[in-house]
Amino acid sequence: MPADENREAMLFRVLCSSASPMNRAAVAVRWVLAACALLGACWTALASAADAVAEPVAQASPGAHGLPESVFLFYNPNTTGMPVDRVVSAIEKFLAFVQRQRVISMSVGYYRRLADMESFLGQRQNAGADPPWFASLSTHYLLSAGYQRGYYPIVCGHEKGEMTYRAMLVVERNSPIQTLSDLAGKRIAMTEVGRDQIPYFNTLMFNGKIDMASYFSQILMTDSPMSSVMGVIYRSADAAVLDKNMFDRLTKNSDRFWKALRIVYVAPPRTITGIAAWRGVPAAVLDNFVDNLVHMADREGGAEVLDKFAIDGLRECGWEDYRKDADDLRQGGFPVPPFEELVSATAR
Fold first, then answer.
1. Is the pLDDT assigned to residue 34 strictly greater than 90?
2. Closest CA to 232 of 170, 289, 288
3. Residue 101 near residue 290, CB atoms below 8 Å
4. Which helix (H) or strand (E) holds 315?
5. Which residues 6+ apart lie within 8 Å of 243 measured at CB?
């Protein structure tokens, strides 16, 4: 080996040696750079997560011209029994249907946290913008706060001819659990719900007889009713909460679920969440919107959209259809006004 090449080879070996001070310095530099890159990635992820909390899950740009434009506000902290991406996809298909009917062009404003939604509405108000013209709001929000923002029910979903749903508890068929009282201290699986929503469940699902937070040993939050049910089947949960209509669909499509599960509790009937309108919506837009929704099942693509929300169709409804829910929430200590005030506060 020539002398020059020999010196270069020796230098290379020294630099690559773990004992080399130069190599240790280089390694240290590489570790610092890697740590900085990792911290930068984490910071970016955290910043993105923070932004996601403050903004709707999806925000699409209105695409139609010549139509009124607004935001369709969707607030349901229980994810409507579906993962977030499926909820947003279903809403987008619904809005596309409405747009095809030449009614209105709306973007999606989907919230699962009350504080985020209220912040969004407050920002619109401060900017002098109308509230979203149409919204799908959880029953307890509509009755306790939504009416104060001028929202009132216009259409409600129906399943098998009924505008009500019934939440229920199911257990594994061979489980010794027979009644609600047997579930004390047990594990329950349900679609994700914020802790601040538990009091509403106590009232609307259990008539105030139990406090879910202390009655069950553990509340396992899942991304869908199917996940809740599978938790029972594979015994990671003792019981699962799901809507009776959803249970009927599962058992109709598969004997496996019917043979594996047993119902131990059925809650009182509650109004299926529908769509509310802001009292300032122009009458012509409102009438056109309601007409298309009521006849949605008969129009092209309408039945497919309805199926995304696990309902057969939509019917006109009003405060009267929420009277029972309002009375029960009021008796449970929630800030729901007398029925007459709900009506007068949202009069057009």
1. no
2. 170
3. no
4. strand 313-316
5. 81, 165, 166, 167, 168, 225, 310
In this structure, how many other beta carbons lie within 10 angstroms of the beta carbon of residue 153? 26
% of the chain surpassing 70 pLDDT: 77
User: With contact defined as beta carbons under 8 Å apart, do 235 and 172 qualify?
Assistant: yes
Tracing tokens 């201290």 back to the chain, one arrives at 185
Query: Is residue 170 within 8 Å of 261, Cβ to Cβ?
Result: yes
H/E stretch holding 277: strand 275-278
- 152-180 per-position pLDDT tens digit: 999 998 877 778 788 899 999 999 999 99
Non-local CB neighbours of 185 within 8 Å, separated by 6+ positions: 215, 216, 217
Instruction: Give the DSSP H/E element, type plus range, for residue 240.
Output: strand 239-243
Amino acid at 171: V
Give phi and psi for 100, each to the nearest 5: -65, -25
CB contact set of 212 (below 8 Å; sequence gap of 6+): 188, 198, 201, 202, 206, 219
Strand partners, 184: none
Q: Give dist(CA 139, CA 151) in Å, integer.
A: 12
Tell me which amino acid residue 24 is: R
What's the CA gap between 306 and 140, in Å, rounded? 23
Contact of 101 with 300, CB cutoff 8 Å: no
Q: Where are the alpha helices (DSSP H) in 145-282?
A: 198-204, 212-215, 225-233, 244-253, 255-260
Q: Tell me the three state secondary structure of residue 171.
A: strand
| Nearest partner of 165 among 272, 248, 265, 249, judged by Cα | 272
Close Cβ partners of 261 (under 8 Å, ≥ 6 residues apart): 170, 171, 172, 173, 229, 232, 233, 247, 251
The whole-angstrom distance between residue 227's C-alpha and the CA centroid of its chain comes to 15
Q: What is the DSSP letter of 298?
A: G
> Average pLDDT in the 99-116 region?
88
Kind plus residue range of the DSSP H or E element containing 73 = strand 69-75
Residue found under tokens 């009776």: 244
Is residue 158 within a helix (H) or strand (E), and if so which, with residue range? Answer: strand 151-158
Indicate the pairing of strand 275-278 with strand 134-137.
antiparallel
pLDDT at residue 190 is higher than 90: no
